[in-house]
Amino acid sequence: MPKQTFLNLPQEKQRRLLKAGFEEFSRVPAIDASISNIIKLAEIPRGSFYQYFEDKYDLQAYLVMQFSQEWYQTWRQLLQEHQGDFFAAVPLLFKDILDMMRDEKNHAFWKNTFFQFRNSKEMRKALHQQRRSKHGDDRELINQQKLRIELTAHNYVLLNRQITTMMIQSISMYFMADRFNVDDPYQEAIQNFNTLLNWLQFGIQDQGGNADD
Fold first, then answer.
1. Choice among 38-42, 55-59, 84-88 with the minimum mean pLDDT
2. Could you tell me the pTM of the whole model?
């Protein structure tokens, strides 16, 4: 989490530091990123950085959470537009997120971020710490009559984790498409996510019998 000294900064200084971090993490994954480059771009003394963030992974996680807050607002809007239909809103949210990540100004940052997420315990720890209390409870926007489960707070946490895992899996495949000789990684990611979502929504077992019949 950013320290209170960062939150107390004027908005312009906050934006300058965040922009510097975004540019550095777009240049290289955080494991190779230079705090010296960040403070030079942000025009702050080196010692000041550690008054604002624990380390470079903490800064990167905060940048990710800034995007996450925007997606959360998009999610609420989609639920309202689709009368609380969870499974109508989710694929639209995924497409919105993927479109943002593949945008030219964001692509390098997110490609490096996904590389870092897979390979850095520090990044995963920092992101986990910042995610815990960022979002509210939006169950009231979901039409629960369309679901087979009772959407308790615990069940909703489990469902959100499952959806997030599916999104991360599909986006990771998009960024690693060059390793798999995928012709259209964007459509492949959309199709992969929709397939996983379909399995979650309708199940994969034939309701007419079991696999041994």
1. 55-59
2. 0.86
